[in-house]
């Protein structure tokens, strides 16, 4: 498995090929901070709070290149773990790695972004370290293996315009600051066909045990299979609030799909009363060579994992790409319940 992202081509890429390149672009999370979070059984703790913005260099009056060149060049790789960004507020998950692909644990990191080399810089945007740990009862087989991510970095970014942006990460060290480019840089509005907040969710049929003669291995690569297959989304959408999880625990290229499904399992049991949780695998016949399942295509997805929180009227209340911890998902589910009077 490739641990670090390669540079994505700028030229148009066929949709099927783009999907797999996207998975490689976020594959950096394979080695992400496995030591963070400790052995806590709470399953919902932030591994470490974000440092203060005042702990990092000011961007006032600087271009993005001046900010980069003002600090010691870093050999760290800053690997985004999401691809789809829109104008406005965005959650920005990412990983930090050494050039030998080993993880950088528990770093103090802030991000800076600019629309062009001459435009004003937004930042510093400090990142917290978020745990992917779940309580033991919800950990699937392999969830604690060497290839699974146990935590990730998360910052909030406001992109006020569409198009490509330039990104820099500043890392605080004992000797001062280091700076590295964010690669690949975000392109805001690049994927307009992904189902958006406020839109009606596509009415898709998700497989249930009855569709496969009770053989859950056909519709779930998790071991053991998740408990989120009892309802068909087409029978639920427009009637009940729902949480729809697109992830493939055993075949995930970014290695966060298994932990994300585990997180969904825990939140379902702890906060899911009145909400239908559905897990949908990614690949046809669970074979990457056979392309993505039609449900993902209907939602316009180019990466995974994704979680869509859908109101009982069928509108999408929230969508989340990439890694998510139990605390963040629990908050999102509670907001969904409140909005729907559950």
What does this structure look like?
With 342 residues, this protein is an alpha+beta fold. It has two domains: 15-188, no CATH class; 209-339, 3-Layer(aba) Sandwich (Glutaredoxin). 16% of the residues lie in helices and 25% in strands. It has six helices and 16 strands. The chain has helices at 15-25, 64-70, 233-236, 257-271, 294-298, 326-339; strands at residues 46-48, 72-73, 77-80, 88-97, 108-114, 121-126, 128-131, 151-159, 163-164, 166-173, 176-181, 187-188, 242-246, 276-280, 306-310, 316-321. The strands form four sheets. It has a five-stranded antiparallel β-sheet with strand order 1-7-8-4-3, with no helix packed on it. Strand 13 (242-246), helix 4 and strand 14 form a beta-alpha-beta unit. It is globular. 46% of the residues are buried. The model is unreliable at 1-40 (pLDDT under 50).
Q: Indicate the radius of gyration in whole angstroms.
A: 20 Å
Assign the structural class, choosing from mainly alpha, mainly beta, alpha/beta, alpha+beta, or little secondary structure. alpha+beta
Q: How many structural units, i.e. domains? A: 2
How many H/I helical runs?
6
> Which segments are poorly predicted (pLDDT under 50) over 5 or more consecutive residues?
1-40
The ordered string of helix (H) and strand (E) elements is HEHEEEEEEEEEEEHEHEHEEH
Net shape: globular
Strand order of the largest sheet: 1-7-8-4-3
In helices, the fraction of residues equals: 10-25%
Tally the beta strands. 16
C-alpha termini separation: 42 Å
Question: Approximately how much beta-strand content do the residues carry?
Answer: 15-25%
């Amino acid at each position: 498995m490739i641990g670090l992202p390669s540079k994505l081509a700028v030229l148009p890429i066929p949709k099927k090929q783009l999907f797999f390149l996207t998975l490689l672009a976020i594959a950096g999370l394979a080695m992400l901070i496995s030591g963070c979070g400790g052995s806590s059984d709470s399953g919902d703790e932030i591994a470490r709070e974000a440092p203060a913005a005042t702990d990092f260099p000011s961007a006032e009056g600087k271009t993005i290149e001046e900010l980069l060149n003002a600090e010691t060049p870093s050999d760290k790789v800053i690997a985004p773990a999401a691809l789809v960004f829109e104008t406005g507020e965005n959650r920005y998950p990412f990983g930090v790695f050494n050039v030998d692909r080993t993880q950088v644990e528990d770093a103090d990191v802030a991000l800076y972004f600019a629309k062009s080399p001459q435009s004003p810089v937004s930042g510093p945007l400090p990142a917290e370290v978020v745990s992917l740990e779940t309580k033991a009862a919800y950990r699937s087989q392999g969830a604690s293996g060497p290839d699974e991510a146990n935590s990730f970095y998360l910052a909030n970014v406001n992109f006020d315009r569409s198009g490509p942006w330039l990104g820099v990460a500043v890392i605080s060290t004992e000797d001062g600051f280091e700076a590295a480019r964010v690669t690949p840089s975000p392109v805001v509005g690049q994927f307009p066909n992904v189902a958006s907040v406020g839109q009606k969710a596509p009415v898709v049929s998700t497989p249930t045990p009855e569709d496969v003669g009770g053989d859950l291995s056909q519709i779930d690569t998790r071991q053991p299979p998740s408990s989120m297959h009892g309802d068909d989304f087409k029978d639920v959408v427009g009637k009940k609030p729902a949480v729809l999880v697109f992830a493939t625990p055993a075949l995930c290229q970014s290695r966060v799909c298994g932990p994300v499904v585990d997180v969904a399992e825990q939140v379902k049991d702890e906060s899911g009363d009145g909400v239908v949780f559905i897990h949908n695998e990614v690949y046809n016949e669970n074979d990457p060579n056979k392309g993505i399942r039609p449900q993902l295509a209907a939602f316009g997805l180019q990466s995974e994992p994704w979680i869509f929180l859908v109101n009982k009227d069928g509108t999408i209340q929230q969508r989340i790409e990439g890694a998510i911890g139990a605390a963040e998902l629990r908050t999102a589910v509670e907001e969904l319940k409140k909005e729907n009077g559950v």
